Amino acid sequence: MTNSLSDHTPIILQFPSSPKPSAVVQYYEMWSKHKEFAKIISSHKDITCNSPSQSLCKFLFQIKHPLKRLHREHFSDLKEQQLKARKTLEILKYNYQKHPDDNAMALQEKEAREKYISILSSSLDLIKQQGKMEWIKYGDDSTRIFYAKAKQRKLSSYIYTLKNQDGGSVEGFEQVGLTMFHFYKDLLGEQLADRSPIDMEVIAHGNVLSSEQQISMSRPFLAMI
Question: Judging by DSSP bridges, how do beta strands 161-163 and 169-171 pair with one another?
Fold first, then answer.
């Protein structure tokens, strides 16, 4: 407790109001693939104000609610839509296999497959966009995402499996290291440690060049270079 205050001192409690911030409408790339997106954009494009910035703000304000309605009606439950579309497609495929000559069944199976692919594509676009936003926001910070990405890049550079000269597969970091060591050892060869001694009688047999003669002989060669 604060000094000079007893436990019987009255305390005034204040709870300041914190109004909830207005929701921010975020654009999703999957909206542009829906057939109603073009209608929403074209129905509000003829907006003129004093400045381009005001026209843009007014345009965004007018399409905000139609886009929220579009998202709520068609993209708010993508996971459930994907499960339902997959189940419907499996049933139609099973029935179509029993009646391969039924053209109506084939048309229903085709429409169900296209619907499932469209829902799956929207789900992938949403995951990609969320992953990109998360990386832009946290990618350069010293967070777990950064270190996980660095660890993943480091692990991708490791060689765990390798084929030896006989065509067999070698696994394990130690075995791969030994295989590469023996390969380059055979390629480069071994260094000869033993050298034959110099025979002094051969050197003393003929004339020996002095330092002045060596310099005089090297001058024409240097002039040619």
Answer: antiparallel
Instruction: Return d(Cα 129, Cα 119) in angstroms, integer.
Output: 15
Contact between 86 and 116 under an 8 Å Cβ cutoff? The reply is: yes
Q: Are 41 and 34 in contact (CB under 8 A)?
A: no
How does DSSP classify residue 7?
T
Residues near 159 by beta carbon (within 8 Å), at least 6 away in sequence:
176
Q: Is 43 helix (H, G, I), strand (E, B) or coil?
A: coil
pLDDT tens, residue by residue, 95-129: 888 888 888 888 988 898 998 888 888 888 888 78
Q: E strands, the chain, where?
A: 161-163, 169-171
Question: What six digits make up the tokens of 212?
Answer: 């002045």
Reference 122, options 37, 25, 24; nearest CA is: 37
pTM for the structure as a whole: 0.44
